[in-house]
Amino acid sequence: MREELGDYMPRSRFTLVCGVLGVCFAVFAAWLIGGWGGPDTVLAVSDLGSLLAGGFAAGCAALTTRASRGRQRRAWGALTIALAGWFFGDAVWAYTELVQGVGTAPFPSLSDAGYLVFPVAACLALLLLPIGTLGQSQTRPLLDGVIIAGSLFVIMWTTGLDEVFRLGREDWFAFAVSVAYPITDIVLLSVALLMLTRARSGQRGLVVVFTLAMAVMAVSDSLFVLLNANGSYTSGALVDAGWVAGLLLLAVAAMMGLRSADIDFGPARPGSQTALWLPYVPLPLAVALGANDDGSPTLMIAGLVVVSAVVARQLIIAEENRRLLVTVADQALRDPLTGLANRALFRDRLDHAVALRIRDGRHLAVLTIDLDDFKLVNDSLGHPAGDALLKSVAVRIVGCVGEGDTVARVGGDEFAVLLEDCSEPPIVLAHRIFDAFDQPFSVEGQEVFMRPSVGLSTGQSPDEPATSAEALLKQADLAMYAAKRSEHGGVAAFTADMHRIDLREVDPPRDRDVTPRRSGSAGLQLFAQLRRAIDHAELSLVYQPKFAVPSGRMAGVEALVRWDHPERGLMLPDEFLPLARQNGLMGALTEAVVERAVRDAIAWRAEGTDVPFAINLFPPTLGDLELPNRIVRIVTDGGLSTDCLTVEITEDFLLGNVKRAGRVLEMLRDWQIRISIDDFGSGYSALSYLRELPIDELKLDRHFIAPMLTDERAEAIVRAIIDLTHRLGMTCVAEGVENAATAMMLADHGCDVIQGHYCSPPVNASEVLSVASPW
Ligand code: C2E
Ligand code: CA
Ligand code: CA
User: Fold this and answer.
1) Can you give 473-521 as a three-state secondary structure string?
2) For ligand 1, is residue 570 a contact (CB within 6 Å)?
3) Cβ atoms 291, 161 nearer than 8 A
4) Structure-model confidence comparison of residues 443 and 349, the more confident one
5) Which atom number of ligand 1 is nearest to the Cα of residue 762?
6) 638 in helix, strand or coil?
7) Is residue 625 very low, low, confident or very high in pLDDT (cuts 50, 70, 90)?
8) pLDDT tens, position by position, 113-154
9) Please, what are the domains in the chain?
10) For the CA of 758, the nearest atom of ligand 1
11) Are the beta carbons of 213 and 249 closer than 8 angstroms?
């Protein structure tokens, strides 16, 4: 028994009720056997006991019906009807016997109508109970029951039932009713047995009790018919105890149903062997006996019913097998999660399409799609949410392409599309897929923003046509990586120069171990908002001026990013940059910062002052060879010359690929962009890079500046570094200058530029031109 509807029926109460029922039944049976109080009392006890048992069982079934849902509810409802029918029959019976005092009630009577409702509705209940595994037809056990019952009927008929029939010919109706009992019982019992072979472990207890009840009822019915045919049945005989036992067992089954929560379907699995051959056990004998008979119409009808049931059963099995085969074949080529084509099927279709292109010159295109930051969803919302998201993504992609195109899931968060019906330019379709991600996905009640990187190859690049499936896929992948690195575009078509991208250098976020700083869904939400803020230029900048020493002239400003969050208020870089860093948003953020700073610089220029400005660079972005070009383009597009720009970068970049970083710095330098080493002295310090790399400025870390007045060693270091920068032909900037005395001392030591709260805190763009000189 699994999860319990404990409120209704805790285990202790269940055990107690079962015990009480057992005792009651024992007393009841003993009474009938002992014949205490004479025949009249026994009759009354028998009839009332049976009535009580039926009423109790019907009540239990009704309760379970009320407490359950869906299909289970219908099953228990059917059992309630079955038991109510029985109760009605018993009530009529008891009335005729006890009130009208007829002794043993006549047969057949109105009560038989009630009794016969029972097997039909109980059979329905069994078939409705969600027993077995998903995908198994419920018609099959019914047909099986019909085959068994029909065969048994043929056997019974040919071995003497026809005699009984001939004798009882004058009361045809009575005969039909008495035959209806064993037949419906056999169907019911067979169905119960077949259900038992199907039941999975968690369902078995209930089905065993159910089957047992059916067996006891069926045996009692048969005994009744037998005794009745002999004319030896008297009410109050032990047969009555059999029915009561059956009724009580059904009450227990209903209580078990009440105790167990939803009986769930397991995964599809082949049906049991027993269920396959069991229905055919009585069939050969029935055929043998039936063939020898002279062929009464009754037998003919029974035979026809059995044959039809066998044929129908075989058809159902054949159909089930066919479906199973199709499913198996299909599963080998499908991604089980999304139902899209898998890598194997995609490759097969692509090979085919390439062959057609070579033969007929048909067009084709390959798109590869990779989700940015997918791992974040998995990490913060859990894998089921990740799976749900992938399914929704699959639906969106499929919604963008044509009927004849193949969409596949080729990796965790990677998809591929093969376009064969190129009725519109593939790049248009690539953009349509990209745009389909504009709307957030709803995952477990949360809005999740996803961005894809889409790479396209048509194999028709003039420099490098692709003629094989591999080449097409590789080109699409290269384009996809280029798209991922560009941060803004999201879509890229293959061009020959993309080979320059060293794939090992590309660090797509999905491969990184991304743990959002604010873990959980709050982190995810904040991340979605940050991405939005970056995309919609909602981040703002403040500027902290730097002043030349000793002139006191403003030497420039440093742009510092701020995020005016709708709920959290103004956020400082420390509160959101880690999130951007961990999730690959720094490139986009940098570009947004440069764009904003350029706009402000244009405004300052319009007021008559050119203000040089510095931006901060996230060291790993120096791995991106495209970065200098993008920054330069933004500056020159704004009509500014690039020499007004300084990039500040911490020594951390040396931890990465120094060669590549050096190339990027050279490229920036070629554009007269100044390079400043930020927080100098605080991090990685192999001074050799000062000799090798094109550096214009050192910004002395404020942790040396702040204690200068009181700590001689700090002062000595500052002096030495100022000296060093001058010898290397660089500018020295002291940051974090908080008071006049420190400023004086720095001036004494020959520091070129100072920056800090003493001179000016960071201010808004509109205030930059009115910041006064510190002296
Ligand atoms: P940073 O580049 O060293 O920037 C200087 C930080 O020191 C700023 O904090 C500034 O407000 C603060 N500061 C200025 N004067 C003083 C002073 O006299 N005393 C003290 N104690 N602090 C002072 P903020 O704006 O919170 O920036 C923190 C860091 O965030 C920056 O350090 C920088 O590494 C990073 N950051 C800021 N904006 C950007 C950006 O646009 N891109 C990148 N990649 N990083 C940024
Ligand atoms: Ca800085
Ligand atoms: Ca700094």
Assistant:
1) HHHHHHHHHHHHHHCCCCEEECCHHHHHCCCCCCCCHHHCCCCCCCCHH
2) no
3) no
4) 349
5) 11
6) coil
7) confident
8) 898 899 999 999 988 887 765 556 778 888 888 888 888 888
9) 2-134+164-267 (1.20.1070), 343-505 (3.30.70.270), 526-770 (3.20.20.450)
10) 18
11) yes
**pLDDT above 90 as % of the chain:** 42
Would you say the CB of residue 236 lies under 6 angstroms from ligand 1? Answer: no
Residue with the smallest CA separation from ligand 1 atom 46 is 616
End-to-end CA distance of the chain: 84
3-state secondary structure of 240: helix
**Could you tell me the CA-to-CA distances from 492 to 401, 451, 614 in Å, in that order?**
18, 14, 31
Kindly state if the Cβ of 66 falls inside 6 Å of ligand 1.
no
Residues 552-601 have pLDDT tens digits of 999 999 999 999 998 899 999 988 987 887 677 888 999 999 999 999 99
**CB of 622 closer than 8 Å to CB of 660:** yes
Mutational test site, ligand 1, from 616, 676, 758, max ligand atoms within 8 Å of CB: 616
What own/partner pairs with CB < 8 Å and gap ≥ 24 does 735-742 have? 735/699, 735/700, 735/701, 735/702, 735/705, 736/701, 736/702, 736/703, 736/705, 736/706, 737/705, 738/706, 740/774, 741/709, 742/705, 742/706, 742/708, 742/709
Q: Which atom of ligand 1 is nearest to the CA of 648?
A: 2
Closest Cα to atom 22, ligand 1: which residue?
A: 736
What value does the CA radius of gyration of the chain take, rounded to a whole number of Å? 43
DSSP secondary structure, 298-329, as one string: HHHHHHHHHHHHHHHHHHHHHHHHHHHHHHHH
Q: In what order do the strands lie in the sheet with 414-419?
A: 406-409, 414-419, 365-372, 451-457, 491-493
Residue linked to tokens 């105790």: 259
In tens, the pLDDT along 446-465 reads 778 788 999 999 988 777 78
- Which of residues 653 and 673 earns the better pLDDT score? 673
For residue 494, give every residue at least 6 positions away whose Cβ sits within 8 Å of its Cβ, in sequence order, or none. Answer: 455, 456, 457, 458, 461, 475, 476, 478, 479
Atom 29 of ligand 1, residue of closest alpha carbon = 573
In the DSSP assignment, the letter for residue 226 is: H
User: What local confidence, expressed as pLDDT, does residue 1 receive?
Assistant: 37
How many CB atoms are closer than 10 A to CB 713?
Answer: 10
Tokens (6 digits) for 441: 């996905």
In the chain, the amino acid numbered 22 is G
Nearest CA-CA partner of 584 in 439, 484, 478? 484
Strands 554-565 and 491-493: unpaired
Residue 114 · residue 90 · CB < 8 Å: yes
Distance between Cα 591 and ligand 2 center (Å): 16
pTM: 0.45
- Only one residue has tokens 């001026």, namely 545
CB 210 within 8 A of CB 126: yes
Q: CB neighbours of 123 closer than 8 A, spacing ≥ 6?
A: 142, 145, 184, 187, 188, 191
Quote the pLDDT of residue 714.
92
Q: How many residues does the chain have?
A: 775
Cβ burial 114-125 (10 Å sphere, 16+ → b, else e):
bbbbbbbbbbbb
